[in-house]
Amino acid sequence: MKKIIFGDHISKTFGEGQEKHIVLKDVSVEINEGEFVAIMGPSGSGKSTLMYALSGMDSIDAGTVFFEGMDLSALSEQTLAELRRTKMGFVFQQPTLLKNLNILDNIILPAMRNNKTSVDNIKKKAHALMEKVGISALEKRDITQVSGGQLQRAGICRALISNPQILFGDEPTGALNSKSAQDIMDILTEINAQGTAVLLVTHDPQIAARTNRVLFMRDGEIVNDLHFNRFNDTNIDSKIDKLMVEMRKIGI
Ligand code: ADP
Ligand code: MG
After folding, report:
1. What CA–CA distance (Å, rounded) separates 243 from 21?
2. 58 CA distance to ligand 1 middle (Å)
3. Domain 3-250, CATH 3.90.1640.10 — does that match?
4. Confidence class for position 115, pLDDT limits 50, 70, 90
5. What is the spatial distance between Cα 26 and Cα 7, in angstroms, rounded to a whole number?
6. For the residues 179-194, what does the mean pLDDT come to?
7. Domain residue spans in the chain?
8. pTM, 2 dp
9. 3-class secondary structure, 142
10. Is the CB of 55 inside a 6 Å radius of any atom of ligand 1?
């Protein structure tokens, strides 16, 4: 399998002196092309910090993050921003869509900045994505006129507009009811099946059980890297049971 991301002995500290807090302790992790990975762990264990470090959104104090073999710290701010815009997609708990733009304009905005494709092509792509996630009828709506689940679908379309290699999600289903959350997971599963790697933070075993691999964090370290077996782990309930056993071991 080809590596997309390689975090090599990364450390991150917040604060100084008495206040010093090591949030990532010499973490090494690889994310391969097409993987579907969840990060679980107690609140404050460093899940978001790890995700931001791996995506180059946040700096690190020691170690190296490689994206497709490129050392992120060696890139200029501009190159790094472009890399994030074209090769990575981001989905957060609350989609950060703009209030004065309708759903369609919000979705196409990041691609318009890339300046490489025609507006027509970008719109075509946006329409295909909206169709895929079931929000085609909402393109002209203001973002205040749709539900939380619909907003998250729009956020996913926006994250996918540039065909990223990897989609990052920091608790992307955290603000949704369980039905909407599972619908979002159906969409992410389909996106993943079509080749996009997905890395998401979640505290919900029902969500993590939909992935193929779960990294467990505790106190800034990856303490377990559980790979589900493609052949044996096909039953969602038994996957949840497996996760609960591992969660108990680290106190969540
Ligand atoms: P998680 O996502 O697992 O809940 P985070 O990665 O957000 O955890 O945070 C891990 C630790 O780092 C927490 O103790 C948090 O308080 C601390 N932390 C995160 N971001 C900052 C920051 N910008 N400044 C200071 N401390 C931070
Ligand atoms: Mg977090």
Report:
1. 28
2. 12
3. no
4. low
5. 9
6. 94
7. 3-250
8. 0.95
9. strand
10. no
